[in-house]
Design a protein that fits this description.
The protein has 8 helices and no strands. It has one domain. It is mostly helical.
Amino acid sequence: MDGLEQSSFFRRRVVEPVLQLLRIGATPHQLAWSIAIGAVIGINPLLGSTTLLALAVASVFRLNLVASQLGNHVMYPLELLLFPVFLRLGIAVFHSHKLPLERGALLHAVKFHPWDTTRLLWSWEWHALVVWLVFAVVAAPLLQRVLRRVLERMLVRLHREPVIEK
Protein backbone atom coordinates (compact mmCIF):
# COMPACT_ATOMS: atom_id res chain seq x y z
CA MET A 1 0.00 0.00 0.00
CA ASP A 2 1.29 3.44 -0.81
CA GLY A 3 0.77 6.48 1.45
CA LEU A 4 -2.51 7.54 -0.17
CA GLU A 5 -4.00 4.05 0.07
CA GLN A 6 -2.91 3.76 3.72
CA SER A 7 -4.44 7.14 4.50
CA SER A 8 -7.66 6.15 2.77
CA PHE A 9 -7.70 2.79 4.55
CA PHE A 10 -7.14 4.45 7.95
CA ARG A 11 -9.85 7.01 7.29
CA ARG A 12 -12.35 4.37 6.11
CA ARG A 13 -11.60 1.79 8.85
CA VAL A 14 -10.81 3.98 11.85
CA VAL A 15 -11.82 7.62 11.47
CA GLU A 16 -15.23 7.08 9.83
CA PRO A 17 -16.44 4.52 12.42
CA VAL A 18 -15.41 6.92 15.21
CA LEU A 19 -17.23 9.77 13.49
CA GLN A 20 -20.32 7.56 13.20
CA LEU A 21 -20.17 6.84 16.94
CA LEU A 22 -19.95 10.58 17.63
CA ARG A 23 -22.87 11.23 15.27
CA ILE A 24 -25.12 8.81 17.14
CA GLY A 25 -24.35 10.43 20.48
CA ALA A 26 -21.31 8.77 22.00
CA THR A 27 -19.35 11.29 24.04
CA PRO A 28 -15.67 12.03 23.45
CA HIS A 29 -14.98 11.07 27.08
CA GLN A 30 -16.62 7.65 26.75
CA LEU A 31 -15.12 6.98 23.33
CA ALA A 32 -11.65 8.01 24.50
CA TRP A 33 -11.78 5.58 27.42
CA SER A 34 -13.21 2.85 25.20
CA ILE A 35 -10.54 3.21 22.53
CA ALA A 36 -7.73 3.61 25.07
CA ILE A 37 -8.75 0.48 27.00
CA GLY A 38 -9.16 -1.48 23.77
CA ALA A 39 -5.77 -0.30 22.49
CA VAL A 40 -3.94 -1.10 25.71
CA ILE A 41 -5.59 -4.51 25.93
CA GLY A 42 -4.80 -4.99 22.24
CA ILE A 43 -1.08 -5.12 22.96
CA ASN A 44 -1.16 -7.49 25.91
CA PRO A 45 1.33 -10.35 25.57
CA LEU A 46 -1.22 -13.13 25.99
CA LEU A 47 -1.79 -13.70 22.30
CA GLY A 48 -5.29 -14.67 21.28
CA SER A 49 -6.91 -13.10 24.33
CA THR A 50 -7.42 -9.52 23.25
CA THR A 51 -10.88 -9.65 21.70
CA LEU A 52 -12.55 -11.43 24.60
CA LEU A 53 -10.62 -9.46 27.21
CA ALA A 54 -11.53 -6.13 25.58
CA LEU A 55 -15.20 -7.18 25.39
CA ALA A 56 -15.20 -8.23 29.05
CA VAL A 57 -13.51 -5.08 30.33
CA ALA A 58 -15.68 -2.81 28.16
CA SER A 59 -18.80 -4.58 29.42
CA VAL A 60 -17.79 -4.36 33.08
CA PHE A 61 -16.99 -0.64 32.83
CA ARG A 62 -19.90 0.11 30.47
CA LEU A 63 -17.66 1.36 27.72
CA ASN A 64 -18.52 1.46 24.06
CA LEU A 65 -17.98 -2.09 22.76
CA VAL A 66 -17.48 -1.03 19.15
CA ALA A 67 -14.87 1.59 20.06
CA SER A 68 -13.02 -0.79 22.38
CA GLN A 69 -12.84 -3.41 19.63
CA LEU A 70 -11.70 -0.77 17.15
CA GLY A 71 -8.86 0.22 19.48
CA ASN A 72 -8.05 -3.43 20.10
CA HIS A 73 -7.90 -4.50 16.46
CA VAL A 74 -5.92 -1.46 15.29
CA MET A 75 -3.17 -2.52 17.70
CA TYR A 76 -2.74 -6.07 16.38
CA PRO A 77 0.47 -5.39 14.40
CA LEU A 78 1.93 -3.63 17.43
CA GLU A 79 0.94 -6.56 19.66
CA LEU A 80 3.11 -8.88 17.58
CA LEU A 81 6.01 -6.43 17.67
CA LEU A 82 5.74 -5.85 21.44
CA PHE A 83 5.29 -9.51 22.40
CA PRO A 84 9.04 -10.22 22.53
CA VAL A 85 9.64 -6.85 24.22
CA PHE A 86 7.25 -7.67 27.08
CA LEU A 87 8.80 -11.14 27.38
CA ARG A 88 12.30 -9.69 27.62
CA LEU A 89 11.22 -7.04 30.12
CA GLY A 90 9.54 -9.75 32.22
CA ILE A 91 12.75 -11.79 32.15
CA ALA A 92 14.75 -8.72 33.22
CA VAL A 93 12.36 -7.66 35.99
CA PHE A 94 11.89 -11.15 37.44
CA HIS A 95 15.46 -12.35 36.73
CA SER A 96 14.15 -15.40 34.84
CA HIS A 97 16.16 -17.68 32.59
CA LYS A 98 16.45 -16.49 28.99
CA LEU A 99 14.03 -17.76 26.36
CA PRO A 100 14.93 -21.07 24.71
CA LEU A 101 13.93 -19.75 21.28
CA GLU A 102 15.64 -17.17 19.11
CA ARG A 103 13.57 -14.20 17.92
CA GLY A 104 12.80 -15.52 14.41
CA ALA A 105 11.69 -18.91 15.71
CA LEU A 106 9.63 -17.27 18.44
CA LEU A 107 7.79 -14.98 16.01
CA HIS A 108 7.14 -17.94 13.68
CA ALA A 109 5.80 -20.03 16.58
CA VAL A 110 3.60 -17.18 17.81
CA LYS A 111 2.16 -16.53 14.37
CA PHE A 112 1.43 -20.13 13.38
CA HIS A 113 1.01 -21.91 16.73
CA PRO A 114 -0.11 -19.28 19.27
CA TRP A 115 -1.74 -21.67 21.75
CA ASP A 116 1.13 -24.17 21.79
CA THR A 117 3.61 -21.32 22.07
CA THR A 118 1.70 -19.78 24.96
CA ARG A 119 1.70 -23.11 26.83
CA LEU A 120 5.43 -23.51 26.21
CA LEU A 121 6.21 -19.99 27.31
CA TRP A 122 3.79 -19.74 30.24
CA SER A 123 6.47 -19.23 32.92
CA TRP A 124 7.78 -16.25 30.92
CA GLU A 125 4.30 -15.22 29.85
CA TRP A 126 2.99 -14.34 33.30
CA HIS A 127 6.08 -12.20 33.94
CA ALA A 128 5.36 -10.40 30.67
CA LEU A 129 1.72 -9.96 31.71
CA VAL A 130 2.78 -8.29 34.98
CA VAL A 131 5.03 -5.90 33.06
CA TRP A 132 2.22 -5.20 30.59
CA LEU A 133 -0.26 -4.59 33.43
CA VAL A 134 2.03 -1.97 34.98
CA PHE A 135 2.43 -0.41 31.54
CA ALA A 136 -1.36 -0.52 30.96
CA VAL A 137 -2.15 1.23 34.25
CA VAL A 138 0.08 4.12 33.20
CA ALA A 139 -0.62 4.15 29.45
CA ALA A 140 -4.43 3.90 29.43
CA PRO A 141 -5.13 7.20 31.25
CA LEU A 142 -2.48 9.02 29.23
CA LEU A 143 -3.86 7.68 25.95
CA GLN A 144 -7.39 8.53 27.07
CA ARG A 145 -6.44 12.17 27.68
CA VAL A 146 -4.87 12.51 24.23
CA LEU A 147 -7.76 10.72 22.52
CA ARG A 148 -10.38 12.79 24.37
CA ARG A 149 -8.85 16.01 23.04
CA VAL A 150 -8.73 14.63 19.49
CA LEU A 151 -12.32 13.39 19.74
CA GLU A 152 -13.53 16.73 21.12
CA ARG A 153 -12.00 18.46 18.09
CA MET A 154 -13.61 15.90 15.79
CA LEU A 155 -16.97 16.57 17.43
CA VAL A 156 -16.61 20.33 16.97
CA ARG A 157 -15.81 19.83 13.28
CA LEU A 158 -18.71 17.41 13.00
CA HIS A 159 -21.12 20.05 14.33
CA ARG A 160 -19.86 22.48 11.67
CA GLU A 161 -20.63 20.06 8.82
CA PRO A 162 -23.74 20.84 6.81
CA VAL A 163 -26.62 18.47 7.34
CA ILE A 164 -27.21 16.35 4.25
CA GLU A 165 -30.37 14.29 4.02
CA LYS A 166 -29.95 10.85 2.48
